[in-house]
Amino acid sequence: MSGRVRGGDRFASSVLDTWATMFVDPERAEHAAAALHRLEGRRRALGDILRVHKAIPQFQYGLDQLAISGPQAHRARAAAAKSWHAAEAGRLDDHLRLLRSELAWLAGQPEVAGAGLAVIKGFNNARFYVDPSPRWSRDIDVYVPDWAACLAVVRLLRERGYVFDEEECPWFKAEFEHGRTEYGQLFLVRVDGARFSRVDIHFGTYSVGAGDYLDFPLTDFYEPVAPDLGYQGVNPTGTLLVMFAHALSDGYVSVKDANDTVSLALTRDDVDFGRLAREIRRHSLEPQALLLADHLTRLYRDPRVGGFARSLRRAAGGGRTSPLWRMHDRNWHRRAAVNAVHAYRSALRRRRGPLVAARRAGQCAVFYNRRLSVTLSDRTLPQQLLVRLMARTDLTRWRLRSDACPTMIHTGHPALTGVTPDTSAAPDGSATGLPRLRPTPATGVRVGGTFPDRQLVAIGDDVFLCSWDQVVSSRDAALAKHLASLQGATAPRKEKPADD
User: Fold this and answer.
1) What is the pLDDT of residues 296-343, one digit of tens each?
2) Is this structure's pTM higher than 0.90?
3) DSSP code at position 194
4) Is 79 helix (H, G, I), strand (E, B) or coil?
C-alpha cells in the first residue's frame, strides 16, 4: 500500500506508525510495548525522526501510557525510553504555554472583536483530542476573512514587538475577475530571551497548491471554541478540508494528520461527508484523502476509526491511491511533482484546456523547485531562465493572480544585513529614481517600483522587496533599504529561534 515508506525510510515509517500515532486499539499498545527493544540502539536516529515530524509530544504521551498501564513486562522499558526526550518535551510544553497566552492576549484586544478571528490547523485540531497535550504546534495559525481584519492583527502584533519572520516571507494573491479578493499569509515572530512565539495569519481564504484556493467562505465552518473567547474554531468538516489543502502544500500526509483524524473519529460524529465529498472533488483533493483513509484502515481495528476511514474513502471517490503520494515523506522533489499534477488536474477541472493545464503544471514544478532561502546576488544564467518560466504578475498595478506567488522580502531580513541604503536616490524620485509608493485597493498597502524585478510593497511602514525566486540583487536591496529608511520601517533583527 502506498502509505508504506520504503528503503532507508523504513525505520522512520516504523517509528511513526508504531509509537507516534495514537494507540486506541489494545493490540497496537501491546505491539508498541513489545517492540521497544528495537529503539535502544537507535536513540539518535529516533530523536531525529521525532523532531523532523514534530512527534515528540505524541511519542512521550504514548510511552507514558505504556509505562503506567501497558503490559507489566515492558513498563520499565517504556519509562526508560520516555526519559530520553523528557527535557526536550518540557521545553515544548513551555512553548505551547507561551503560545496559548499569546493567543489569549490577541483574542482579548478590542480591535479583534468582530474581526472574525478563528484558529485553524494545530490549535484548532487540538480541541478534538481527549487529552490535547500530545498535539504539538510550533506556531499559532489564525484565520480572518479579509485583508482589513488581517491588517488590524498585524498592527497589534507589531506594537507588541513582533517582527516579520525571516524564515517565511509574506505573500498576496487574488483572482479579481472571479470575485476572489486579496488572500494570502503573513508570518510574525516575537522573541523573549530564549523563548519565541510565532503567529501565522491566513486571510481571505486558504491556499490550495500553486494556483488554487478553498473556493467557499471558511466562515461556513466556524463553531464556538468555548464560552467568552474572542475567537472561533473550525468544525470537523472544515478541519479536514484545511488538512487536505495543507497536505498538498507540504507534498505528503503527516503523522499529525493521522492523529488529528483519529481524534475526530473518536470524539465527533458531525462530519458532513456529503459536503466534504463535493469540496474534495471540486478542489481536486482526492489523492491525499484516499491515502489517509487507507493508512488508517491499515493501522486501526477500532470500529469508530474504521468506519470514519470508510466514509472518508467514499467521500474521496474510492479507487486506487496515487503512486506519487506518501505518508511521512518530506521529499521536496515529490512535493513539486504532486503539486504539478494537482495544478494540471485542477486546470482541466476548471475547463482551462490541456495546453493551459500543461503550462500551469510546468510553472508549478519550477516554482516548487526554487531555492527556499533568500540569497543576495545577481542571478546566474540558469536562474534567469528559471525565473522567466515562473508565473509572475505586476504588483505595481496590483494585478494579483492565484497562480503567481511573490516572495515579499522585508528590508530588515538578515540576508540583507550587509547592504547599505542607496542614499543617492532622492525622496522626490529624482537621481537614481527612488520609486514612489502608491496606494492599492488593499487598505494600508502601497506599491512602487517596476515589474518584474524592482517591485516594492509597503504594509504600513514595513517595506518589502518582491522576488519570485528569493534571489535579490545588492542594487535593488540598497534601493529598497533607502526607501525603508525614509518610512522609518527597518525593523530590528530578531534572534534566530531554535527549531522546535
Assistant:
1) 999 999 999 999 999 999 999 999 999 999 999 988 899 999 999 999
2) yes
3) T
4) helix
